[in-house]
Write a structure and sequence with these properties.
Largest sheet: 5 strands, antiparallel
Mean pLDDT: 87
Number of helices: 6
Number of strands: 10
Radius of gyration: 18 Å
Helix content: 25-40%
Strand content: 15-25%
């Protein structure tokens, strides 16, 4: 391998290590719930991101998003989004303001070059859970709808705004959902739905059926979700980044 190719490979490897440093190593320990995560990248660098931020008043921010693409450019934008949300959480305490500010931040970057503007966009679900009331206030910016399993019923947290980074003055709205003890909340990226065995994709119906049928602990749930994708015949590594968060209330 030539010296420039070696240098490029080393650069990607280093960027991948830095990206992995951004993602949480373990979910937070909460008195009100148990949290498990799964993250499988299509390549060394990806566009999926997620994290948890504990707020001074005891509420918990949880977010998951998917930047356009899954390569070097998506990892750069993912890092921008990730850093901005962490900074924003220091001074802002509601999801509407957080997502609105992030949208304006990305649009300003996109304006720097029209040939690259489509890279500065992302779907995003950002919610804040109040442990006292179990009230979840959220913005779903064009992201695949998280699912709440309550006994045998499924509830979808539908989109409340367009993806961030597309429109300078996006119409961003909040949604609210009252969680209850015993609920299972699943957040995920579209790489799970789009996982393919060549002839068909895993799809929303299979995910719904899997969530409804799979009991047990949150750690077992994540292991079985990964196994379900393998049994379906999805690629390993996947064709698109696959990330998921499960929260048992």
């Amino acid at each position: 391998m030539s010296e420039p190719a070696n240098a490029a490979g080393n650069g990607v490897a280093l960027a991948s290590r830095i990206q992995q440093l951004l993602l949480p190593k373990t979910p937070p320990v909460c008195s009100w719930g148990c949290i498990g995560v799964m993250n499988r990248m299509a390549t060394a660098l990806g566009g999926d991101y997620f994290d948890f931020i504990s707020m001074p008043d005891g509420r918990e921010v949880v977010f998951i998003g998917d930047v356009t693409g899954h390569d070097i450019q998506s990892s750069v934008v993912m890092s921008l989004v990730y850093g901005f949300l962490h900074h924003c959480a220091l001074t802002v305490d509601d999801p509407l303001t957080m997502v609105s500010q992030l949208n304006r931040f990305l649009v300003r970057f996109a304006d720097h070059g029209t040939e690259l503007d489509h890279h500065f966009s992302s779907t995003l679900f950002l919610g804040i859970i109040d442990p006292a009331s179990l009230r979840l206030e959220y913005v779903n910016a064009g992201h695949v709808p998280p699912l709440v399993l309550r006994r045998n019923s499924l509830h979808r947290l539908a989109s409340t705004s367009p993806p961030v980074g597309f429109f300078a003055e996006a119409e961003v709205a909040t949604g609210c959902f009252g969680l209850e003890r015993g609920d299972r909340l699943l957040l995920y990226t579209d790489g799970i739905l789009d996982a393919s065995n060549v002839t068909e994709t895993f799809g929303a119906e299979r995910l719904d059926a899997f969530l409804t049928a799979t009991g047990g602990s949150y750690t077992r749930f994540m292991d079985e979700l990964a196994a379900a994708l393998r049994d379906f015949g999805a690629g390993d590594p996947p064709d698109d980044d696959c990330s998921a968060i499960v929260i048992d209330i």
